[in-house]
Design brief:
Largest sheet: 7 strands, mixed
Helix content: 55-70%
Shape: elongated
Structural class: alpha/beta
Number of helices: 30
Length: about 675
């Protein structure tokens, strides 16, 4: 990484890691994927006192045990040779749980600094921390900070650049476990392991870590394996247990209790915290669901109501009334051929502009989702929904990926990998696409606005609700057929309520907006150009005098009868649904090009109002809501579920259900309307 020192920032979920990462790196961030896996890899750069440091933001994890994909990624990275040091962010308000990971990191023997976060919350609870004593017992620098307020960030940078050091001592495991680890460390000396991390390897091998035994067990001499087995058996006798993982965890937590008693002074009288007071209301057995429903209504009303519509109109005016005429005038002035002017202005700008005009509504939606996550309310939603989801065989933990699906299906599918039960994970992945992603929003806004102008918001909300209901129906079907196993229980952390960081929220919104604009500037741009070309040329590559005789017209006419029972049989809608397989936003740009609207949503709305009846238009929206997701999400499903069979099966299941649902709505509705 450019010859700079590389430091990994690592901590528990909800420990303030993202806020600290944003505070340290600001806009100097790059987002990619970890090699071989579709998990975001965030990297950032800082320069302090003339010294450069590259910061790698590891996924939030509770331990270095390889249970979830995030933990596997984190452990592989910290055990690699890429890393020069560790910045461990610790939630001081939940110190006992956080120190478990800290002690594991210390055993790696790498240069390390501990950032003791949320000090403002600790002080509000009346807790006093002896930082110097904590630093002495951990053997690494400890800096109390508040990343949200910027408290002591300069001191943390000083430690990162000048004070980071190898831990002065190893964790003191109790009950004879420490002695076993020290002896195992000596035994492992001949093996090709990173020398400084031998205590970590020793502890994990005694624990029975299958991944490390598979990697190093074959290289061990027989007598070494026998001695390690004997040490593990010896730990059993101390703890009266045959579960080595529990023996090590108990020994570590007993040591953590000693640290906390020595370094933390809590008030004698417990006062109800603000978090406890809020939870008494939002987790109330009667009011929990109505409060959640209110927040959802507020989110959708703001997104699709007067505010979102006004901002969208402003974006459309900028692109179509200012930029497009200026480009057209400039091209005409320099004598550009008419077909090329049409390609650029009607195809590219018109197609892309028809999608980008919905950018403000996308940003508003992600703003609300970011607030729900950053405040800690998102975890409460999973808790609230646990009872309902168990009726279709899932746990409340499945609701987090599903709720993320309202933003984008691709990261929502990836979020399901944190689930330990394989059946729950696969079922969650198959149900997540039923949640209406943000890419479908332009389609809803366009068609609902054209056909139901007075009730656009209600129609759009009904689609989101229908997606949830169909997810429930699909869950019942899957539970009775493919996934018959009993759902596992789940452990869910309810983090302390916190005010979202303004900078963090803005950065998150900017990242989502940039992703959307990138898609509009690449996939949607290319699709708009291709659609314009296919619409203007016949299969013999002659200029099409009639759109119906064009390449698209021929393709659309061939597949249109498939959708006739759903109420829409114009070839333009059929082609639009095909391009929606590449990206859902492409449905809008395709119809804009095919109907010659040039990105003018008012003109396109007028045209669609004459093409669709209210019933056929709603049927079209329902099919758009439910049929298979875009190629990006499809590829992610294939990767996460482990093969084409699962991915194709999931796509076919969703598309068949979409067709059947739209068919029932149109055919039954036709009996009454």
């Amino acid at each position: 990484m450019n010859g700079n020192r590389t430091v990994a920032i690592i901590g528990n979920p909800n420990s303030g890691k993202t806020t600290l990462f944003n505070r340290l790196t600001g806009s100097n961030q790059h987002v990619g994927n970890w090699p071989g896996v579709t998990v975001d890899r965030k990297t950032g750069h800082i320069c302090h006192d003339g010294i450069g440091v590259d910061i790698v933001d590891l996924p939030g994890i509770y331990s270095l045990s390889p249970y979830t994909q995030e933990e596997i990624i984190a452990r592989e990275y910290v055990l690699s040779d890429e890393l020069d040091g560790i910045l461990n962010i610790v939630d001081a308000a939940n110190i006992e749980r956080n120190l478990y990971l800290t002690l594991q990191l210390i055993s790696l023997g790498l240069p390390m600094v501990v950032a003791l976060g949320f000090m403002d919350d600790v002080r509000a609870q009346g807790v006093e921390i002896n930082v110097k004593e904590l630093e002495r017992r951990l053997g690494v620098p400890v800096v109390p900070i508040s990343a949200k307020k910027g408290e002591n960030i300069h001191d943390l940078l000083d430690e990162l650049v000048h004070g980071m050091r190898v831990p002065a001592l190893q964790p003191t495991y109790l009950h004879g476990v420490g002695a076993a680890i020290r002896r195992a460390t000596e035994l492992l000396q001949p093996l090709s392991m990173r020398r400084c991390s031998l205590p970590f390897y020793a502890a994990k091998l005694l624990e029975g870590d299958t991944a490390l035994w598979a990697k190093y067990g074959g290289d061990m001499p027989r007598n070494m394996r026998e001695q390690l087995d004997a040490l593990a058996e010896g730990m059993h006798s101390h703890a009266n247990s045959t579960d080595n993982e529990m023996v090590l965890a108990d020994a570590m937590y007993d040591y953590i209790e000693e640290i906390v008693r020595a370094c933390f002074k809590r008030p004698r009288e417990h006062k109800r915290t603000i978090t406890e007071q809020i939870d008494a209301i939002v987790l109330h057995r009667v009011w929990a669901l109505p409060i959640f429903a209110f927040f959802m209504f507020l989110m959708f009303w703001t997104t699709f109501g007067p505010i979102g519509s006004w901002l969208g109109s402003g974006m459309e005016y900028l692109i179509l009334d200012l930029i497009a005429p200026a480009v057209e005038g400039g091209l005409t002035a320099i004598g550009t051929q008419a077909w090329l002017v049409g390609l650029i202005c009607d195809g590219a700008i018109g197609g892309v502009g028809g999608v980008v005009s919905f950018l403000p509504q996308i940003v508003i939606l992600f703003f609300f989702l970011s607030i729900l996550e950053d405040t800690g309310y998102l975890a409460r939603v999973a808790f609230i929904m646990d009872t309902l989801l168990r009726r279709i065989g899932l746990s409340g933990k499945s609701f987090v990926p599903m709720l993320m699906g309202f933003g984008c299906t691709t990261p929502a599918v990836m979020a399901a990998r944190t689930m330990e039960n394989d059946a729950d994970r696969r079922m969650t992945i198959m149900l997540t696409p039923f949640m209406s992603c943000g890419a479908k929003l332009p389609v809803y806004a366009l068609v609902a606005g054209a056909i139901f102008p007075a009730h656009q918001g209600l129609v759009v909300i009904s689609l989101y609700v229908l997606g949830i209901l169909m997810g429930v129906v699909a869950g019942f079907i899957l539970k009775k057929t493919i996934f018959r196993e009993v759902s596992s229980g789940f452990v869910l952390e309810l983090p302390t309520y916190r005010m979202p960081s303004f900078k963090g929220t803005v950065l998150n919104m900017w990242q989502k907006a940039k992703d959307f604009i990138t898609r509009a500037g690449t996939i949607i741009f290319l699709m708009s150009v291709v659609i314009w070309l296919l619409q203007n040329f016949t299969p013999t590559l002659a200029v099409a005098q009639d759109a119906g005789a064009s390449i698209l017209g021929v393709i659309g006419t061939a597949i249109a009868p498939i959708f006739a029972p759903l109420g829409f049989n114009a070839w333009q809608e059929s082609v639009a649904l095909l391009t929606g397989l590449v990206a859902k936003e492409a449905v809008v740009s395709t119809m804009s090009v095919l109907y010659g609207a040039g990105g003018d949503s008012a003109m396109l709305s007028s045209l669609l109002g004459s093409v669709f009846t209210p019933l056929s238009g709603y049927s079209f929206l329902v099919f758009t809501l439910l049929y298979m997701p875009c190629m990006s999400a499809f590829a992610t499903i294939k990767r996460e579920m482990g093969g084409w069979r699962w991915a194709i099966g999931a796509a076919a299941f969703q598309t068949v259900l979409a067709y059947f649902t739209a068919l029932v709505i149109y055919q039954v509705g036709s009996l009454f309307l």
